[in-house]
Structure formats: structure tokens, C-alpha cells
Amino acid sequence: MTEQSNRFMPIDSNGTPRFSGIATFMRLPHVSLEEARDVDIGLLGVPWDGGTTNRAGARHGPRQMRDQSSLMRQFHPGLGISPYRLANCADLGDTPVNPVAIEDTLSRVENFVRQVVEQRIIPLTAGGDHLISLPVLRALAERHGPLGMVHFDAHTDTFDRYFGDCKYTHGTPFRRAIEEGVLDPKRTIQIGIRGGLYSEQDDAWGREQGIRVIRIEEYDDLGVKAVVDEIHRVVGSQKTYVSFDVDCLDPAYAPGTGTPEIGGLNPLDAQRMLRSLIDLNLVGGDVVEVSPPFDPGGNTALVAATMMWEILCVLAANVNKKVGL
User: Fold this and answer.
1) C-alpha pair distances (Å), 170 with each of 106, 213, 258
2) Residue 83 and residue 85: Cα distance in Å, rounded?
3) In terms of pTM, does the model score above 0.85?
4) Max alpha carbon distance in the chain (Å)?
5) What is the mean pLDDT of the chain?
6) Which CATH class is domain 25-320?
7) Using omega within 30 degrees of 0 as the cis cutoff, is the peptide bond preceding 236 cis?
8) Structure confidence by residue, pLDDT tens digits, 60-98
9) How far apart are CA 115 and CA 239, in angstroms?
10) SS3 sequence of the chain
């Protein structure tokens, strides 16, 4: 891969300690949209949890993830790359949100991400609850058409309604995305699904649309390598989004989340699978559902920031190969 000269480098921790300075994602420069014309990958937060149905608090996730991301370094030894020498990366700040109105927030987030995508910047988003993926997908699909998706989660998030006719919750984003034609279910794979259901029909809709669902029991039987092969088979070479809900991990590693489910993935396996995406045609990604009130020590945010770093590295490799631009 070819390194490029750029001005968007993280603060050098050998000169400025990690605990000092203003917190930004990966200690990157904060750049406004008006000044972002040279940015390849834009890291942004969506501090909002209006789609949460039980344990709220993910609105505080982006701020704590920025803080914990100061622990990320500049070279990835597993992949053998330095993302900041392959792509111009910057913290674009937070999208506008309305803490008391769901559909208004969805519109605000979509409009902000649309401006990012119109500048040919790849968005890497920190949530927020999982409903924030829907407006991001909407904005990306305007440019790229229906996307495939690699989705790490304990839940399929393809439910239909909640409390009567509430169709926008963190359990419904991918059902809405498929219905709206922004997500291609036949190129979507979900990994780590587990936990009890309200009925045997709860996850039937997604399978009927063609989503490849790998429940945790099948994951355990297959192992990482076979799951990686399945990811590549399902999404192919077309444009793809990656969505990482921290509740895909066992709550022993990530307790600070809205809907924890025991018996989940371990972080190393998750990292290995994310690294395998380096050969895919990725156009964006997110890490969601970090809820700091349920983990004041910040370990969940550290795990999430690390997964965000893993996604950033594979996105930077994509930029360097000029894939999807």
C-alpha cells in the first residue's frame, strides 16, 4: 500500500500526554464540514438514544469513546498498516440531534451525513443507540444505492413495531432500511445473534428477506475462519457497510450497554473478524450502544473505541486502494 502525505495526523503522545488536551476521536484534528474538503474518512458522533426501549444512556457514548480513544496508537501491527498514512482522517464533531423527537433527529442526522458523503468522505460513526444506523444508511444509499452489510450484534434489529405503532426504535433500524430499499437483505450477514425472543416469529422476517443470520451457537460451531469465509461469500465485492453493536460482545467485556445478553463474542474474535474486512468494498461503518452510566469505569467505551480503530484501519486500506470512491 502506498503512503500519502497528509496534514491530518493524531497528536503525538510522545510530546503531549494522552490525558491532556481536548478529546477527539483517536486524537485526530477536529475539522468542520466547511473545512473538510481533503478528508477521506470522517469520524463523527451521534449523541442520541431516543430509540432505546429500556436502559438509556447511549447519548453519552460518543463523548466517552472520544476520551478512551486517546489510548489508540498510530500503527496496526496485525494488519501492518498506519491508517493515517493511507488516508486523511479527522474528527468531524457530532451530528445535530433533537433529544426529545425521534423523526426530527433522524432527519438531522441524515442531512449531516449527506453533507459528509457529498464531499466523498467515508463516515465512521459512534453512537448513540442502534437506530442511528438508519439515517446513515439512507444518506449513503443516495450515493451508492442499496448496500450490503456486515452486522455484529446480539439482536437482529429487524423487529417491526414497539408499544403499538412505534416503528422507530433501536430494535427496528434494519427492517426500516430494507423496506426503504437502502439495505440489500441478500447481501446482509448478522453475527453473534442470541438471547430469548418474545415469540418464535421475532426473527423470521429477516430470514424470509434473505438475511444470513449466524446465531451464537452456529458461530461457536463454525469458528472465526469459517465465519469470515461466509462474510465474504454473502457480501461479495459490492459496496458494503459495517455496523458493530457492542452488545455482540459478552457483557463480561462490555457491560455498559442498553440490552446486554450473556454468552457473547470475545473481543479478540471480534477484532479478527473486523480485520478480515480489509478486502471488502466498504463505504462506511459505525460502533453503537455504548452506555457510560452502566460502566462508569469506561471499559466498554475502551472496547468500543478499539473496534472503531479496527474499522478505521480497514476503511483506510479501502481508501488507499481507491475502492468505492
Assistant:
1) 12, 18, 10
2) 5
3) yes
4) 57
5) 93
6) alpha beta
7) no
8) 999 999 999 999 999 999 999 999 999 999 999 999 999
9) 19
10) CCCCCCCCCCCCCCCCCCCCCCCCHHHCCECCHHHCCCCCEEEEEECCCCCCCCCCCHHHHHHHHHHHHHHCCCCECCCCECHHHHCCEEEEEECCCCCCCHHHHHHHHHHHHHHHHHCCCEEEEEECCHHHHHHHHHHHHHHHCCEEEEEECCCCCCCCCECCCECCCCCCHHHHHHHCCCEEEEEEEEEEECCCCCCCCCCHHHHHHCCEEEEHHHHHHHCHHHHHHHHHHHHCCCEEEEEEEHHHECCCCCCCCCCCCCCCECHHHHHHHHHHHHHCEEEEEEEECCCHHHCCCCHHHHHHHHHHHHHHHHHHHHHHCCCCC
Cβ atoms within 10 A of the Cβ of 59, count?
22
Residue 89: how many CB atoms within 10 A of its CB?
28
Grid coordinates of 168: 422507530
Kindly give, in sequence order, each residue whose CB lies less than 8 Å from that of residue 11, ignoring residues fewer than 6 positions away. 21, 27
Instruction: Give the CA distances from residue 165 to residues 50, 80, 161, 209, 242, in Å, rounded to whole numbers and listed in that order.
Output: 16, 49, 6, 22, 28
